[in-house]
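re: the backbone from monday

yeah here it is again, tokenized this time
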């Protein structure tokens, strides 16, 4: 598993591979990292305070939607 993000974003047109823009790769990696950090933060928030934080969940939802949108539109 060398670079699964780059492989997921690579287009294939007529037996030819077109690699994604390096800026796109950095953006997707940043978004995935932030999603993981926010998920951890939400888990800690629930564990220690016993409350659900809707703002953190909204940020997680937005970032997840961004990742999904990028992956779907990049392959099209």
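seq for it, each position gets an aa:
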């Amino acid at each position: 598993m060398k670079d699964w993000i780059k492989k997921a974003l690579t287009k294939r047109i007529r037996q030819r591979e077109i690699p994604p823009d390096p800026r796109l790769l950095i953006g997707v990696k940043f978004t995935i990292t932030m999603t993981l950090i926010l998920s951890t933060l939400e888990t800690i928030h629930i564990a220690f305070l016993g409350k659900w934080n809707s703002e953190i969940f909204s940020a997680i939802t937005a970032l997840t939607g961004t990742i999904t949108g990028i992956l779907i539109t990049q392959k099209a």
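The CA atoms of residues 6 and 37 lie 21 Å apart. Strands lie at 11-13, 16-18.
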